[in-house]
Amino acid sequence: MSASLSTHVLDTALGEPARGVHVELFYGPGPLASGQTDDDGRIPMLADGLDPGAYTLIFHPPSPFFTRVELGIELVEGHYHVPLLVSPYGCASYRGS
């Protein structure tokens, strides 16, 4: 069993993708993968071939308030898409498809 992970970041205040956002994936104490969002605010494949388990996904969004958004996620098998919606003073995430 293995999992893969993609993400994207949307700036809901501007109504457009957030470009150049640094995103990191951790498994345990160490970094496993990282990337920058493209012009469409996406990282199409942040990681592939992941073992089942608990991971930490860290976003560094373009916000004057949120300098780091950390999500604990549990991956089992299959593809996971985890978007971040961010505005200057609010953020939300969900499991996408």
Structural class: mainly beta
Binned, the helix content reads under 10%
Number of helices: 0
Strand portion, in percent? over 45%
CATH fourth-tier homologous superfamily? Transthyretin/hydroxyisourate hydrolase domain
First-residue to last-residue Cα separation: 19 Å
How many individual domains?
1
Shape: globular
**CATH hierarchy: architecture:** Sandwich
Return the string of H and E elements.
Answer: EEEEEEEEE
Unreliable segments of 5+ consecutive residues: none
Largest sheet: 5 strands, mixed
Number of strands: 9
What's the Cα radius of gyration? 13 Å
CATH class term: Mainly Beta
Q: What is the overall pLDDT average?
A: 95
| CATH topology (level 3) name | Immunoglobulin-like
Structure explained in plain terms:
The chain has strands spanning 3-11, 16-17, 22-27, 30-36, 42-50, 53-60, 69-75, 78-87, 90-93. It is mostly beta strands and 97 residues long. The chain has one domain (3-93): Transthyretin/hydroxyisourate hydrolase domain (Immunoglobulin-like, Sandwich). The strands form two sheets. Strands 1, 2, 5, 8 and 9 form a five-stranded mixed beta sheet that branches. A four-stranded antiparallel beta sheet has the order 4-3-6-7, with no helix packed on it. The radius of gyration is 13 Å and the shape is globular. The mean pLDDT is 95.
